[in-house]
Amino acid sequence: MKTVRETTALVIGGGATGIGTLRDLSLRGIPAVLAEQGGIAHGTSSRFHGLLHSGGRYCVNDTLSAKECIEENTIIRRIGRHCVEETEGFFALLPQDDPDYVPAWIKGCEQAGIRAEEIDVAQARLLEPELSSQISRIFRVPDSSIDGFRLVLHNAMSAQRHGGTVLLYHQVTALERIGDQWLVHLVNTQTKETTSIMAQVVINAAGSWSGIVAAMAGLDVPVSPDKGTLIVFNHRFSQRVVNRLHPGSDGDIFVPHGSITILGTTSVPTDKPDDTTPSREEILRLLDIGEPLFPHLKSYRILRAFAGTRPLYTPGSAQGRNASRNFQVFDHGSDGLPGFFSIFGGKLTTYRLMAERVTDAVCQYLGVNAPCTTADTPMIEEKPVERIQQAKRFFPIPDLSLLVDRAGDDLESILDNAQQRDPASPNSNPLICECEMVSLAEIAAIAQSKDTHSLTDIRLRTRLGMGTCQGTFCTLRAVTALVENDIKTANDPLTEITKFLQERFRGIRETVWGTQAQEMQLNNAIYCGVLNLNGQQYASTK
Amino acid sequence: MSVHLNPDTCLACSGCVVHCPVAEATPAFLGPRMIGPAFERFRLLGIVEDASLHYCANCKNCEISCPQNVPVATINMLARLEQCRKTPPSLRDWIVAHGELLARTTKYVPASLRNWALGLSLTRLILDGIGIAKQCPMPSFAKEPFRDHIQRIDQAQGKVVAFFPGCYTNYYDPQTGFDLVWVLNQAGYRVLVPKDFVCCGIPLISGGFKDDALANATQNAKVVAELTKASIPVITTCPSCRLMLTRELAAFFPTVTKTYGNPNVIDAMDFLARLIASSELALSPNPPTLSALYHAPCHLRAQGEGLPGFDLLRYFPSLSITNLNAGCCGISGSYGFKKEKYAIGQTIGSALFHAVKSSPVSVVASECGTCRLQIAGATGKTCLHPITLVRTLLEGNGVA
After folding, report:
1. Whole-angstrom distance, CA of residue B94 vs CA of residue B213
2. CATH number assigned to the domain covering B283-395
3. B147 CA: distance to closest CA in chain A (Å)
4. B37 contacts in A (CB within 8 Å)?
């Protein structure tokens, strides 16, 4: 039987903007529900290079964007401490770059309020020994790296703490105007159950899918998904974000994240918002373009590649790099759709500002007078240091900082899980994923949380299988641990292994050469050879 | 600036974990793959060092077993150097790392007095108190360091070869050096023992004393470079010294090898085999009949050049030599001397000790001084350098 629930505001899209909007609404005391067709940050927010822009990239052509970037950069470093690595960034000028761009860039930084400090190239290369000796000028800016998935997750945790509701795996199938309300029909993509939500306000924050959602309300909106491909390297060969000091182009940003480095991106128009398959051509091109900054680039091991789509808002006919990275908030009341709002375009760095602007518009529509507090409220409440100190001895790795940062509100349940294990056994909480240092307690605790259905859900929360071996060892270990601890997933263990490895391989397929090819040989030997997972070897030899 | 090695070639296959004697002996050690290439990815991020890093014995079995040539132990040692730069090592660690300095500064105190003092139970208790296991057999100081003694020995003019004796031969076991000199004299070589050679630095690296190790590396590389330039070959009887000089210097101190080149130091056993092959060294027509067991030191195997000492001994038909092939002895330089590592060292060596004890043969040959000390201590059998057997076989006239 179909259920209908009521709320004040319904947000469509569980990326940074949508979840950020849910958080803003919740902090302002407005009852709100969010519907996301996949898991948390399933779209673009987890599919970019993870750069928290200083604004240096935009300061020449787009002072407004640059200003917004540096302001939001400062805010997010404050409210999202656990998602951000304060790496700082370099802008480096190579012989093939136009030296005349530099004065314009310096002026742009000044105008936007970005602190850009030139440093001695020799000094910079001491800090970053892998950088090219061809570099003639280097500037340091307050770029940072940011974990997009975690940012969205922590926003969701904050929103939920303040009363917001997140419905994952809920796809919008139709929008209806009933009286002065909106009736939004949803289908649960996992269970196929349908539900409907009655709301006074609908906020379309579906990113690359926002054109499709708008079309459901009868609007024709120029949102063009634009595909960007990125490469993940096995180690951190740069401690800082490194940008080319030239007008923004393909393959000119390196971002270190935890144990890895990401190089991106390309820019190719696409008609499908879920076009997230990287192509080998693009990968090879990225390597060619990236090599002048890091001359040994091609010798570094590639773990995988991935792609995401930018939700470019393209009135007129601007495309790709020429299209504005600005965002636009629309009150479709002027289109005859009162209570229907859209947010188009934008970039992750300014997600909070976008959420604030759309929430301001919603508040005005609802006649609610509540100020935005998202810039001053940390997303995750800090745990007492003593609590973490005490828990250290229950973990195989004494440095819990990575765990604390990624766990967010689930930290307590993870620490509890570790403490409840047999203290007499020296190996009661072993590392399940050695490459990314994820312990059994973390996996078990996350596996039991309500939004976890699969190893992939566990992976996104813990980084299980995201390191050097890409699941070669930890997939079997994790599934075994779940079975031994009597924790159920949506699929049976064998299917879980297969699905997880296939998902991993999807990103490896186009980069499988060198050491990673050897790794995949080993992977194949273990799962298909030893465990006969594909079950075809015997059949074909008989 | 800290030196990091690119951890990219590790496949996480865990072959090194299977072959790590420490990981097998104690669950307290996270294991070579985790502490080495896996943790290295997080060291680059600046994470706090794992507490179990000090368990790595630097025995190099990880590197021997790695199909991808990942310098696992070297990664660990670089991490330890970095760790010790931040937190200075203990007095005990200073003592075991600076054996050469201690021996050198006390060399005018009669050896008998030093050995007597070191042998006192009170001394052992005090040493135990600072972390040097009291059960451990200690090497005895020689009456006079080999290098001082050899300068007074008359050697006939001839082809010149330079000898890097290493601390063990120099201060505790000069006989190995004398035997080598005797054998080389037979082949018409005059053996030069340059006074400028210092400790190879491997104990300093394991102990975390980077500056001291760098100073020694620079000094040794400079001397070897001068000798090499003068076309004088440099040889050593110690596998660990050779490992350090020819293999590790470039990894730990690239600036040194950039300046002086990679030191070319030849394994003395290899050198002798060449002399026999070229008939420069004649075998005795009437050698004694002998039996011995052979233990291959880990640091010899880590060089990946086979077992030149064992191969050399097999040149002598009157010698029955058996390769024990029973793994690490557990001492790993100074590792097994450390109080908290003593039991681990004994566990690691137990298979080897068993093999030695259960054999009727009473002599064990091994190139490594501390291996010999450990095996002799655990089994009571006679342990000597292969060169001593070679000398016996060359000078013998049928009577062992």
Report:
1. 12
2. 3.40.50.10700
3. 42
4. 468
Helix axes B268-277, B386-395, angle to 10 degrees: 30
| Chain A residues with CB-CB distance to B38 below 8 A | 434-435, 437, 467-468
Class for domain B146-272, per CATH? mainly alpha
For residues A134-152, give the mean pLDDT. Answer: 97
Whether B218 shows a pLDDT value over 90: the answer reads: yes
pLDDT band at A422 (very low <50, low <70, confident <90, very high): confident
Q: Of all residues in chain A, what percent carry a pLDDT higher than 90? A: 82
Six token digits for residue A443: 């996996």
ipTM: 0.92
Mean pLDDT, all residues of chain B = 94
A426–B27 C-beta distance less than 8 A: yes
**Using the beta-carbon criterion (under 8 Å), do B34 and A522 form an inter-chain contact?**
no
pLDDT the model gives residue A539: 47
Domains and CATH numbers, chain A: 3-43+149-222+325-366 (3.50.50.60), 86-144+225-311 (3.30.9.10), 385-541 (no CATH)
Interface contact B9-A515, CB threshold 8 A:
yes
- Across the range A194-212, mean pLDDT stands at 95
Residue found by looking up tokens 């990624």 in the block = A406
- Token pair belonging to B295: 């233990």
Residue ranges of chain B that CATH labels 1.20.1050: 146-272
Helices (H) and strands (E) in chain B, counts: 24, 8
Nearest CA in chain A to B48: A399
Q: Show Cβ contacts of residue A206 under 8 Å, excluding neighbours closer than 6 positions.
A: A12, A13, A18, A43, A212, A213
Q: pLDDT per residue over B22-47, tens digit each?
A: 999 998 999 999 999 999 999 999 89
What is the CB neighbour count within 10 angstroms for residue A415? Answer: 25
Counting one residue from chain A and one from chain B, the pairs whose CB atoms sit within 8 A come to: 81
Q: Using CB atoms, pick whichever of B9, B38, B44 lies closest to residue A434.
A: B38
Taking an 8 Å cut-off on Cβ atoms, the answer to whether A437 and B45 are in contact is no
Instruction: Looking at A469-513, list the stretches that DSSP marks H as alpha helix, in order from N- to C-terminal side.
Output: 474-484, 493-508
User: What does the alpha-carbon distance between residue A71 and residue A64 come to, in Å, rounded to a whole number?
Assistant: 11
Distance between B224 CA and the closest CA of chain A, angstroms: 30
The predicted structure's pLDDT at residue B398: 47
Q: Where are the beta strands (DSSP E) in A134-289?
A: 137-141, 144-146, 165-167, 170-178, 181-188, 194-204, 223-233, 241-244, 253-257, 260-264, 268-269
What's the helix, strand, coil split of chain A in %, to 5? 40, 20, 40
A20 has a pLDDT exceeding 90: yes
CATH 3.40.50.10700 domain range(s) in chain B: 283-395
Q: Letter for the amino acid at B309?
A: G
